[in-house]
Structure formats: C-alpha cells, structure tokens
Amino acid sequence: MQRSRQEAIDGLLPEQREALILERLRTHGRVLAAELAAELQTSEHTVRRHLRELAEQGHCKRVYGGALLISPADKPAAIRMHEAVDRKARLAVAAVSIVRPKQIILLDAGSTNVAIANALPDDADLTVVTNSPEAGARLLNRPGFDVILVGGRIARGAAGSLGATALLQIQQIRADLCFLGACAFDPDEGVAAFDAEDAELKRAMVKSSGRIAIALTSEKLMTAAPFAVAPAGAVDYLFVEAEVPAARIASLKAVCDNVMVARS
C-alpha cells in the first residue's frame, strides 16, 4: 500500500528535508520559511536552520522571510559566450526594438549584450559606448555606428573592462539608453552582480543613463548574487523569455514599467 504524501513528509530525515528545500529553490528561485514550515510540518526555526546550511554551502542567499537561489551566472566569460546562444539571440532581437537613431547607447559587458550588438541593424546611426571588447568588435566596420571602447583592466574570466579607468570614463558619459548586464534579478532584491568592481561600474552606468534596459535568460530570474547594483524599479525595460510563467511575469510587472517577452 502506498504511503500518503503527508506520511512521506512526516517521515523525512533532516538531509531529505534539506534536499527538498534545495529542489524548491531550484524550481522557484525564492522560498519562504513560513510556507516551507507548513508544507513540511516542521517549525520555521528548523527551516531557517536548513536555509542557513544551504547558504553556507553556496546554494542560496538568505533574505527577509526566506531565501533566494544563487544565480548560476558566475562562470568565466568564455564559457557563457557559448551557452544558450539561440535564446540570447531571440532576447537581443526584442531588445533592439527600443533603440532609436542618433541615440548614445551604453552597452555593458556580457554574452547577452554581445548578442544585442550583433542584432543592432546596419545604418542605425548610433554612438555605442561599451566596456566589452567583444561587443565593440561586432560593431566595427559596420555602417551607422560610432564605437567608443571604455578602457581599463580586464580581469581573468571577465567579459569587459573594470577598475578606476573604466569607472571614470563611464562617469563622464550621458547616455540615452543603457543595456545593463545582470548576473541576478529579483523583484524584491533588485539587480545584482558577483564582483564588487563590476557592481560599482554597473551602478555608475545606471547613474549615467537616461533609461535602463536588461535582457535576461530565465535562469537568472528570481536569483541572487552578492553585490547589489540597483533596485528592480530602476529598470525601465526588462526583456524575458517566452517560457517564463505568467505568475512570474506578473511579479516582474509589479516593479518594472515595461516587461517585454521575446517570442520564438
């Protein structure tokens, strides 16, 4: 005779409870201690202990009331450039729809933003300022682009220049639109990055730009990274993939004025 679901939950060992919580994190991104305690028929104190242990293992970040999954985007740029290429191309096609002639575009480093550089049409009549050598290379010798490459130190595994030189140059720019790179995005926790210098440069880009746009692959949604960049409400345009569930789209629309879905 099969055991009921509740009997199975009641009989969970601590390590099985922790594995179930990690599964919920990977499925939903954010979990709430109170909801998990009710589902697992245990105390919030026990759930918080499990979340603390998972955070110490690097799986999640503790936030008020629960935890967020750590973004999987903490990989070397060379690896990320070859991941989800078709998905990033679809996001890029949607993202470039908001670009207008004669704008100054600030293009942050990152593999999705390299796809945006590719997707910009010839004769776009744009000035593109970027800290990404790869994105700059995609625009060179194409008609309709004035390309300004931001200098500075490029750390091992990074996708673009960082440090004092890059920061000073960004602070001197007044861009119409910035395509900001994001390692993680959550409606409550906002935009985040894995590197302190990268986060500082991204904050400068936000201050130097009239409007902020982010194109995100689904695995970065409802996730966390160590260094805060900007609140979710600072993002004017958020481009997401078609597979994002309707409930998650609704939570994004509650904090961002323009959530646009990239169709396949």
Automatic annotation (TrEMBL):
InterPro entries for this protein: Carb_Metab_HTH_regulators, DeoR-like_C, DeoR_HTH, NagB/RpiA_transferase-like, WH-like_DNA-bd_sf, WH_DNA-bd_sf
Keywords from the named record: Repressor, Transcription, Transcription regulation
An annotated Gene Ontology molecular function: DNA-binding transcription factor activity
SUPFAM superfamilies, per database record: NagB/RpiA/CoA transferase-like, Winged helix' DNA-binding domain
Domain HTH deoR-type: 14-69
Pfam families in the record: DeoRC, HTH_DeoR
PANTHER family assigned to the protein according to its UniProt record, in alphabetical order: GLYCEROL-3-PHOSPHATE REGULON REPRESSOR, HTH-TYPE TRANSCRIPTIONAL REGULATOR SRLR-RELATED
Record protein name field: DeoR/GlpR transcriptional regulator
Source organism: Paraburkholderia antibiotica
